[in-house]
Design brief:
Helices cover 31% and strands 19% of the residues. The protein is an alpha+beta fold. It folds into four domains: 48 residues, no CATH class; 162 residues, Dipeptide-binding Protein, domain 1 (Alpha-Beta Complex), CATH 3.90.76; 136 residues, Periplasmic binding protein-like II (D-Maltodextrin-Binding Protein, domain 2, 3-Layer(aba) Sandwich); 213 residues, Dipeptide-binding Protein, domain 3. The N terminus is likely disordered.
Length: 569
C-alpha cells in the first residue's frame, strides 16, 4: 500500500512539474545561470506521502490514563496521559502493546488472520500453525537487530510436567518450561540436562465472584480466607523455595507487602463466620458449589488437578462446604473467569509482566475489571492514587491502605508464591529464563538448524493485544516487538522499536523517536502511524478495528485504567 501511494505521488509530482514548465516565461538568456532541479528522492516522497494519524479521547472524564496517541511525523509518536504514570515505560515494553503494520490491522478488520498470523518486526516470523501440534517460526533475515543463530524455531506443548521432561530426556526437544516439583533433583543430577531457575514473581489465588450468592457476603469471603490451610497446600504441592502468600503481590515487588499480613488458618472461627453469612443469605447448610480450573501447569500452580482436589477436601473438612471440581478448556476458562461469569470458586494466578506493583494490583482490582464481580472503590481508588506516585517510599502509605482493603474485603484468597524452574539440554548454549517477559530464543545456539521448545499449553490466539495467557504471549513475543523491551538479565527496560522516549517533568507526556528503517515481515517499513493504529485497535472501544479474539483487550483496559469510548454499563 505504501509503495502504491509513493508511485501515485511521484506521478502527480511529475505532472505538476510539466505544468509548471509550460507556464514559465521564455528561456533565460545564455548569460544567465540555469538551475536544474533534481527529481524528488524516495525519502522526500515518503515525507510528502505521510499523513499523520491520531487517537484521542474526547476528554479525560472517561476515566482512563491515555488522552491521545499521535503521529507527530513519520518517526515520532507522542503519548499524552490524563494523569502521571511513572510505570509508563515498563508497561509499553509489554508484548500486548507491540506494533503491527497499520495496513495489516485494517485489512483484517482487527481480527481474522491477525489471530493466527501476526506480522511483526521481531527476529522470527510465523511459517505455520499446525493446530493441536506445533507452531513453526522461520528466522527473519531482515531483522534490524542481531539475526537468530539458527533457522527454525518450533513451539510444541504438553500439559503434564512428566511428559515434557521425558521429551527433553529423549532429546526430541531442546528446552522445556516448568519442571515438575518432584523433578528438580532429577534434572540437576543429569549431566545431559541443565536446570534453569525462574526469578519471575508470581501469585496463585483461590478466587470468587461477588455478584453470586453467597459470595456477595463479605463474611462468607472472610470465612473462606480463614478456613483454608494454605501452609498445607504449599508443603504438599509446591517445590522447595515456594512461599505461603502473606499478600497478593510478592514481597520482591516494592510495596507488594505493605500493610497487614493475610489471615491465619482458624477453622473454628471460619465455621462460625460462615454460619452467620449463610443465615444472612437464607441458605441452609451444607452450602454446595463448584471449583473450576484449567489443566495447565503453571509456575504459580504446578499441580492444578491435585490442588483443586485438596481445596475441595479442605472446604468439606474445615467448613462443611461441598464443592464439585470442574475442569474447563483453557480458552473458555480464561474468557469466563475474566468476565466474572463463574458461579463458584476457581483457581488462577499471575506471573509478573513488569516489575511494578501496578502490574499485580491494578490489573486485578482496578475499576474496569469484572473478574471478581463488582470492583471495590475502597481498593481501586487507592490504586489510582498510588499509580501516580513515582517514589515507592512516598507511595507506601497508599499501598498499605490498598492491601489492607484487599485483606478486609477478600475478593480472593492468595495462596502461594511458587518457586519454578525450566530445563534444557546441556548442549543448548545461551539457555536462560528472564525475570520479566518471554524467552528470546534467537541468541541461543542449539548446534543445529532447529530448536524445539515445549511449553505447557497451546496458545489461544496470536493476537496478543487481546490475550492474557502466558502461552500466547510467549509465542507472540518471538514475532512482535514494542517500543521498549525488558532486558534479559535484570528485567529493566531498554529501547526497542523506539531509540528513546522522553517524558516531561510531570510524566504526562512521552515523546518517542522510532528506529529508522525497521522492516516488518511483509517488507513494509515501520512508521508512526503503525504505532497509532496498533494502539487504536486495542484502546479505542469505538474503533472498527477493536475486535480481537475475545474483544476484552484486558491489558489495555486495566493497565491504562479504562478503554477510550467504552460503552456505559
Amino acid at each position: 500500500m505504501k509503495k502504491k501511494i509513493l508511485f501515485t505521488l511521484f506521478s502527480v509530482l511529475v505532472l505538476a512539474s510539466v505544468i509548471l514548465v509550460a507556464c514559465q516565461p521564455a528561456a533565460p538568456a545564455a548569460t544567465e545561470e540555469v538551475v536544474v532541479e533534481e527529481e524528488p528522492t524516495e525519502e522526500v516522497m515518503e515525507e510528502v506521502a505521510f499523513e499523520a494519524m491520531k487517537l484521542e479521547a474526547p476528554n479525560c472524564d472517561y476515566g482512563g490514563k491515555i488522552k491521545s496517541v499521535e503521529a507527530v511525523d513519520a518517526l515520532t509518536v507522542k503519548f499524552t496521559t490524563c494523569k502521571p504514570d511513572p510505570a509508563f515505560f515498563a508497561k509499553i515494553a509489554f508484548v500486548p502493546f507491540a506494533i503491527q503494520p497499520a495496513e495489516w490491522i485494517m485489512e483484517n478488520g482487527g481480527s481474522g488472520a491477525l489471530l493466527e498470523k501476526p506480522i511483526g518486526t521481531g527476529p522470527w516470523m510465523i511459517e505455520s500453525w499446525n493446530r493441536g501440534e506445533s507452531i513453526v517460526f522461520k528466522r527473519f533475515d531482515g531483522y534490524w537487530g542481531p539475526k537468530a543463530n539458527f533457522e527454525t524455531l518450533v513451539f510444541r506443548w504438553a500439559t503434564e510436567g512428566a511428559a515434557r521432561l521425558l521429551e527433553l530426556q529423549s532429546g526430541t526437544v531442546n528446552y522445556i518450561t516448568n519442571v515438575g516439583p518432584d523433578d528438580f533433583e532429577t534434572v540437576s543430577g543429569d549431566p545431559n540436562l541443565q536446570l534453569i531457575p525462574s526469578a519471575n514473581p508470581n501469585t496463585f489465588y483461590f478466587a470468587m465472584t461477588n455478584t453470586f450468592t453467597p459470595f456477595n457476603n463479605v463474611k462468607f469471603r472472610q470465612a473462606i480466607a480463614m478456613g483454608i490451610d494454605r501452609d498445607r497446600i504449599v508443603d504438599n504441592y509446591y517445590p522447595v523455595g515456594s512461599e505461603v502468600a502473606s499478600h497478593f503481590t510478592p514481597c520482591s515487588i516494592p510495596n507488594g507487602c505493605a500493610g497487614d499480613a493475610w489471615y491465619e488458618f482458624d477453622a473454628e472461627a471460619a465455621k462460625a463466620l460462615l454460619a452467620e453469612a449463610l443465615e444472612e443469605e437464607g441458605i441452609t447448610a451444607p452450602f454446595t458449589t463448584k471449583i473450576y480450573y484449567r489443566d495447565v501447569f503453571r509456575g504459580y500452580l504446578p499441580e492444578p488437578g491435585n490442588v483443586a482436589v485438596e481445596l475441595q477436601t479442605q472446604l468439606r473438612e474445615n467448613l462443611g462446604i461441598e464443592a464439585e471440581v470442574v475442569v474447563m478448556e483453557s480458552g473458555e476458562f480464561i474468557a469466563e473467569s475474566s468476565a466474572g461469569n463463574l458461579d463458584g470458586f476457581y483457581l488462577l494466578g499471575w506471573g509478573a509482566d513488569y516489575p511494578h506493583v501496578t502490574n499485580f494490583l491494578d490489573f486485578h482490582f482496578g475499576e474496569a475489571n469484572p473478574q471478581f464481580g463488582t470492583p471495590f472503590p475502597e481498593i481501586f481508588e487507592k490504586l489510582v492514587a498510588g499509580s501516580q506516585i513515582a517514589d515507592p517510599a512516598e507511595a507506601e502509605a497508599v499501598y498499605v491502605e490498598a492491601n489492607n482493603a484487599i485483606r478486609a474485603l477478600v475478593p480472593m484468597v492468595p495462596i502461594a508464591h511458587g518457586a519454578s524452574a525450566q530445563a534444557a539440554l546441556a548442549s543448548l548454549e545461551g539457555a536462560y529464563f528472564p525475570p520479566f517477559g518471554a524467552i528470546d530464543f534467537s541468541g541461543m545456539n542449539p548446534g543445529a538448524d532447529t530448536l524445539v521448545f515445549m511449553q505447557n499449553a497451546e496458545p489461544i490466539s496470536l493476537y496478543c493485544a487481546d490475550e492474557t495467557d502466558g502461552e500466547s504471549l510467549s509465542a507472540c513475543e518471538q514475532v512482535l516487538e514494542s517500543l521498549y523491551r525488558y532486558k534479559k538479565d535484570s528485567g529493566d527496560v531498554e529501547p526497542a522499536l523506539a531509540t528513546e522516549c522522553t517524558a516531561n517533568a510531570d510524566a504526562t507526556e512521552f515523546v518517542c523517536t522510532l528506529r529508522e528503517g525497521v522492516k516488518f515481515h511483509d517488507g513494509s517499513t515501520l512508521d508512526a502511524n503503525d504505532v497509532v493504529v496498533s494502539w487504536t485497535a486495542g484502546l479505542d472501544a469505538a474503533s472498527s478495528y477493536h475486535v480481537g479474539n475475545t474483544g476484552a483487550f484486558e491489558y489495555y483496559a486495566y493497565l491504562w485504567d479504562k478503554l477510550i469510548n467504552a460503552p456505559e454499563e
